[in-house]
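Dear colleague,

Following up on yesterday's call, I've attached the two folding results inline so they're easy to grep. Please treat them as preliminary; we haven't cross-checked anything against experimental data yet. The first protein's sequence and structure tokens come first.
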Amino acid sequence: MNNGITICNPLEHPEWDTRLRNLPDSSIFHSAAWARVLTDTFGYKPQYFCSANGSFLSAAMPVMEVPGRHRKIRGKSLPFTDFCEPISSNKIHNFDLMELALKYGRERGWKRFDLRGGSGLHEHHPIFCSIFFHTVDLEKGEQDIYETFRSSTKRNIKKAISGGVEIIRDQSLESVKAYYRLHCLTKKRQGIFPQPFLFFRKIHEHVLDTNQGHIALAVLDGKPVAGTVIFHWNKDASYVYGASDLRYQHYRPHNLLMWDSIRWHARQGFKTFTLGVTDLNNDGLRQYKKGLSPTEEVRHYYRYDFEQNQFLKHQESLYGALRRIVCRKMPVPVLRAAGTLLYKYYG
């Protein structure tokens, strides 16, 4: 391909993660471990746009092909990944990576291409939608971090402690199962199919069991009532998934979970703790995260439709709204079965 960029599969390069760690702004979502989770669970094939100089990786845009209805293939960077910025340490611009991905997509007959990230691309292409991205600076030290929290956040942390909530960190498959029960309850409330359990089993196999993250559970009287999935990459920690049992919300377990994770990672020498992405219209979640006094950025997603030959802007579909209504009414076992059957097609 042009500009010295080729398409490669990181799973075919044992040294991929070692090389990737030296690339600025790389994350675990660019890693071979995350690629293995997606391929082992859903059967996707990695198509990563890369540039290398000898053993030095200088640019990477992870992409996977996702099957859709009527045998229409979509390009995704990346499926089931909230944010995956194209990264580069040389003169290759995100614009060049995007243009090469679109050229490849036309040749492959993609229906559309989704890119979740891409700094500077808004200068060239219309934005599909925008999200908030929150990061806590851990280098300030735990006491200084805590003092910046909102007073309501501090009260909720103290309420959880006085209520007897305890935090357990673990990397075992049993902790994954405990988290997944809470995850399914949360997805039902949100009106979304949960990922199949195989997805979390592969997270355990390729991420947690290789010491690249852990499960944190808030436990009350021996029962997990809230949980998070945390990933590690270099000295950066990422909150990836969170879930809770709404019946115990008045104990504020999630506030204690987040503070305990921030404090633990600061003590372990991590530099940043990212809080994940938040929709611009989800003011409740945004205010909850802002209670932890993070740095807030606006970042962008892009979607190109090959049939219309143009970049799209987000529009809520009637199908999506109806699906949420139906999902909220489904029993959890039925919802899990539907997610296992259909999730790979959503990407």
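Below is the second protein, in the same order (sequence, then structure):
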Amino acid sequence: MTAQNAPIATMTREDNRLLTQVANGAPMGKFLRENYWFPAVLSSSLIADGTPVRVGLLGDKFVAFRSTDGRVGFFNEACPHRRTSLALARNEDNALRCIYHGWKFGVDGTVLETPTQPHDRESFCKKVPLRHYPTREAAGLVWVFLGKQAPRFPDFEFMKAAGKHVATTRQILSYNWVQSLDGLADSAHIGILHQDFLKAVPGNDAVAAAAADLAPTYEFLDRPGGFRFAAVRKLGQDQRYFRVSEYVAPWYTFIAYRQGYVMVSVPIDDESTAQYLIQYNLAAAVVVEASTLDDPTDWPFYPRHGADGHWGQNREAMKRGGWSGFSIHSADFAVAESQGSITDRSQEFLSDSDRAVIYLRRLLIDSVNRFSTGALPTIAEHGEKAYSDVWVGDKVVGAGEDWRERKTSIPDPVTGMTG
């Protein structure tokens, strides 16, 4: 039975907990920790000998800093001595020095000095349990591995982008990471929630016309690291419009746009998410996406009004003819946050337009269950094709044509070519 015609079943509360809980040794947290590199912080936020940056991942607290010579250090936030925050530490001489008792920790994780230890300081330093983690820098981000044995680094094409070829932003969201992924897998809302964006921004003509079909169907292609999916809409008498996206586990969603466009949803804890938007173009300078409404509350300026302020919704804009009262990203953030910090998926009543959301959730749940038995899920094998063969695009398909053939009107972000 295929995903297209399988019966739709509401998730159980047990499955929802398995899917969403990442902190305190939860199975999903263990799976993510041991199998994936995490985007942790924007590279630009770390300045040599500057202020250490606090980082939350999987419910744990860390500190990142750039040393005198430009390297990145990544430690548990609590000093191993008396658990004072190392975000308060002095960052100097390629090390952090705790301001409480002066213990000094080298960027490589070596304990260098413990001035309050009365005797045998050299041997004592070797016993101090400082926890530090390997890091890499790519695409304007510092990446960290939190587990025991680091897997292959996810060498996507966008990891090669630097300078004018990449723009990366970060947004903290007050809800669970899977709610962010749900929204990115859901193509049905585009023609409704984002209709203002489709009307206002040049170059959206094809998707705007196709979005008149408010009930897309889905087709899927399993991939080594996740799956490729096409939202299919009727376009005229004999044509269909395919908008192809790709999900690469555990947190990457590649979206068809005028250039490379990937959104990365990383769990800070059970109830908050760091979402990164990476825009890239290896063939030319990247063009940074701009807000489209009169009230520029778009990425990365997500308003913090909460439920009492209707999440910053602009009702005046709605009176002037706008649909949602939000710009494009703020609309996604608001509808997801309105579901609660962890939505109860056992209370959902799903339709056929939710097939991609169901596909994604089931892939993650099945993979965590497999990992919990001691087996390695396919999405955690990190083969070359998981990262080198990502493709998204949009295309109008006539009778007898296959959307899986890579012919698209969107320029390739690596070559700049269409078709």
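For the second protein, one point worth flagging: The first helix runs from residue 13 to 20.

Best wishes,
A.L.
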